[in-house]
Amino acid sequence: xxxxxxxxxxxxxxxxxxxxxxxxxxxxxxxxxxxxxxxxxxxxxxxxxxxxxxxxxxxxxxxxxxxxxxxxxxxxxxxxxxxxxxxxxxxxxxxxxxxxxxxxxxxxxxxxxxxxxxxxxxxxxxxxxxxxxxxxxxxxxxxxxxxxxxxxxxxxxxxxxxxxxxxxxxxxxxxxxxxxxxxxxxxxxxxxxxxxxxxxxxxxxxxxxxxxxxxxxxxxxxxxxxxxxxxxxxxxxxxxxxxxx
Length: 245
Fold this sequence. Notes:
By secondary structure, the chain is mostly helical. The chain has one domain. It is 76% helix and 0% strand. It contains ten helices and no strands. The longest helix has 33 residues, at 88-120.
């Protein structure tokens, strides 16, 4: 079979047809996880002994921050595949991932500011973590701008992919900023190589929200990519046949 599966995955038509059945399942799973996690975290998780109820914003802030970073890797990897293997679908995924990632980064920044006000006494500081997240937001906006700046789609794809790949340097900086520099931002509370510093009664609903956000991200990315496929492939016979059904 060799690399046949890889080239098939790069087919917009194959992708569109196969993912049609995934969307209802992803929608049900994401809604179930998000509703359960939100109710659990906001209504039943205990109050923090230092921050009171203000800490509950982590159930939105932390998942959106996680997905902002993971989504950037998705965008950059798609851009690299488009550059190397000239796969049209990869370019579509890259373009679709940019606005989703920008929204998630904006949500992370805003919720972080709301959390910071009662915790630090200020809405904003030029903290290493916060500043690098702001750079991430501008990188997303840069990819979106490059997609709109060129009339020729191939040129837009190449320019966007290059910027996305260069911007990956910022991701490790975001991850390690609280360890490399003095920062007001607290260190990571969810750890995979050592014991987490958050109580299980608060951790479990947070993990459920993170999982729900990942599934929801997959759902939105699939739907956005499918829409992009229809736009770019509108002159092909299979899309025309789809429109007449």
